[in-house]
Amino acid sequence: MPRLVSNSTLQQSASLLTSPTSAGTCSQSTRCRQEAETVTALAVSPDGKLLASGTKSLRLRFWSLEDGSNVRSLKAHDTPVVAMAFDATNTLLATGASDGGVRVWDARQGFVTHNFKGHTAVISCVRFHPDANRWTLFSAADSGEIRVWDLIGRNCTAVLSSHVSSVRSLDLSPDGYFLLSAGRDQVLSLWNLRKNALEKTVPVFETLEAAYFVPPPRLAVKRKKDVAQAADSKSASSLVAATAGEKGTVPVRGPARTYVRETRLSHHHLPYCRGPGPFCRSAARVGPG
Amino acid sequence: MAAPTADAATAAAAPQPAGGRIQLKERYAAATLRARRGLDRIRTNAGTCLRPPAATSHSFTSELKLESFYTGGKLALTADGQVLVTPCGDDIKVLDLATGVVKYTLPGVCRDWYRTARCSNLPAC
Question: pTM of the predicted model, to two decimals?
Answer without folding.
Answer: 0.67
